[in-house]
Amino acid sequence: MTVKIIVALLLLFMIYNLFKAMMIMLKNEPGQGSMTKFIGRRVMTSAIIILLLVIAVATGIITPNPRPF
Question: TM segments (predicted)?
């Protein structure tokens, strides 16, 4: 259950960074932060999610659905 909560929070963080980058791109103000910082955070978050899921499946914390056949 803890892994699912962590993954859900990481997904929300990833969506937040996506919208933050979109707002910077649309406003185009020179004094504001770089859009690439938020896109980079989004990519790093997705890599952490994939790594967390692989580790959780490998250790048996979560189990994948059985094959249908």
Answer: 6-23, 43-63
What one-letter code names the amino acid at 56? A
Q: Which residues contact 27 (CB under 8 A, 6 or more apart)?
A: none
Measured distance CA(56)–CA(58) in Å, rounded: 6
**C-alpha distances out from residue 9 to 46, 48, 60, 65, Å:** 12, 12, 21, 22
What digits encode the pLDDT tens for the residues 9-48?
Answer: 999 999 999 998 888 888 877 766 678 888 888 999 999 9
pTM: 0.78
Q: Where are the alpha helices (DSSP H) in the chain?
A: 2-27, 35-59
Domains held by the chain: number: 1
Phi, psi of 6 (to 5 degrees): -65, -45
